[in-house]
Amino acid sequence: MQSTVTKKASLADIFTPERIKTEVLSGLTVALALVPEAVAFAFVAHVHPLVGLYAAFIVGLVTALFGGRPGMISGATGALAVVMVSLVVTHGVEYLFATVILMGILQVFAGIARLGKFIRMVPYPVMLGFVNGLAIVIFLAQLGQFKVPGPEDTKVWMEGSQLYLMLGLTGLTMALIVLSGRFIRFLPAPLVGILAVSGLVIGLDLDVRTVGDMASIAGGLPDFHIPNVPFDLETLGIIFPYALILAAIGLIESLLTLNLVAEITETKGGASQECAAQGAANIVTGFFGGMGGCAMIGQSMINVESGGRTRLSSSSAALFLLAFILFASGLIEQIPLAALVGVMFMVVIATFAWSSLRIMHKIPKSDAFVLVLVSAVTVVSDLAMAVVVGVIVAALVFAWKSSTRIVARVEQDAKGRKVYRLSGPLFFGSVESFNELFDPKTDPDRVIVDFAETRVLDHSGLQAIDALAERYKRADRTLRLVHLSSDCKALLKKAGTMVKASHEEDPIYGVAVDYGEQLTKTANW
Asked: Where does the STAS domain start and stop, copy by copy (predicted)?
């Protein structure tokens, strides 16, 4: 009973009237910004706008309630939409729904298997590149709002007064967000900008493009719908590659966004829980006619900047979006696109890691290269490819640097034996440097190699030790290896008999290879 009272009291302390107001208004701001994004991504994927809006509502609500990061916003995203295009064009929207369901199942399995923890393997330069690249992508996506329909279904840039009015209203929105953020505390700054510019446009009857010019957002509740596709291996062969790619992109973007929001808010998030929640959301979305989705860094930043910190803000955003579809489509369609573009431009400014420009000449050149590379690949390709490329390049750079860190202090003991005291990791990248440390032909008759300050990390390291033993054997020298882990001793083939056993001082670690049979440990030399 005591714990129940305490829990209720703590919830009451958290959800004060002021906090509830902040969370709900933050959700309203996010919902307003979600509308054009969802519609635009639906157009990208060649599906009806409601397919994108339903996805934004369902994915947003499910992840808001069960995701690993309270306050993070999910919905239909461009990173997924560009992958869906060929599937929809070739096979139709029903195959897309089936793919989204399979995508969700794969993501749930990833959550159950706790694969989300591997996001910690993404180096910080890759994270910075992801943030900067995504900020550029968001910026470039807004430029499409400065185009109008041209001849033969083409898009042409605005000109003259239409362009100047669009730029002026966009700039006004940005200025209002900055000023209201300093002087107005009872409303989120982006919401102030949207409401003020919308009121100005409607009051003066200005001729500008609005949300309604993109598409009508009016609709009903989404209906339960089993994808109308053959349930056979042929269908699985069609949708599985797409589902696998979409699942990977969705999880990578979601987990990186989770880390970014957690860093900004100085809180922790559950990576594997987020994987499972994203999967469940996409399964539900596929059965209710949505295009699937993942975390949205732009809208998440709007929520954070507006004060949203709990599940109430992200849940409110999803419910407001549904309310727009059901009841308020007429009002929402009157919002000028310039106001929403201004909000997104402010998101770009807040998202871009400007500090990376200042430190570019101070950090190692390899890290700077990875940062720029990931940003560029994010812009020209997609997020998943950028992160994979960044991690691979960063790993290769690390392997190269580590390959030069194995060194030896050479000395002679009281018995006239030459002692090599190694330091650094021994693995595939450092094998060549390891071999260059020794010269069996010029060494004395008895040699000791001390591994107390090094670690043998892989099969290549074990093979290098065996090869070293063979070199000293051919040179008719006596070699002894000391302070190897018991695992290394057991896995060595040729050098097994040269290991000096000293159990009290030997390190304990494992070498994850199936290298060979275990050999009997030799007696002390």
From this structure: 419-496
Residue 155 pairs with which residues in a beta bridge?
Answer: 149
Closest to 437 (Cα-Cα) out of 397, 396, 403, 400:
403
Residue 58 in contact with residue 312, Cβ under 8 Å?
no
Give the global pTM.
Answer: 0.76
Q: Which of 104, 110, 385, 90 is nearest to 238 (CA)?
A: 90
What number of other Cβ atoms are within 10 A of residue 403's Cβ? 18
Q: What is the pLDDT of residue 518?
A: 35
| Residue 512, pLDDT score | 56
- Give dist(CA 253, CA 235) in Å, integer: 27
HSE, CB side, 13 Å, CA atoms: give it for residue 524.
3
Cβ-based neighbours of 213, under 8 Å, separated by 6 or more: 337
Residues (pLDDT < 50) of the chain are 1-9, 514-525
Neighbours of 288 (CB within 10 A): 17
As a residue count, the chain comes to: 525
Q: Can you give 407-446 as a three-state secondary structure string? A: EEEEEECCCCCEEEEEEEEECCCCHHHHHHCCCCCCCCCE
**pLDDT given at position 524:** 38
Integer Cα distance of 53 and 47 in angstroms: 11
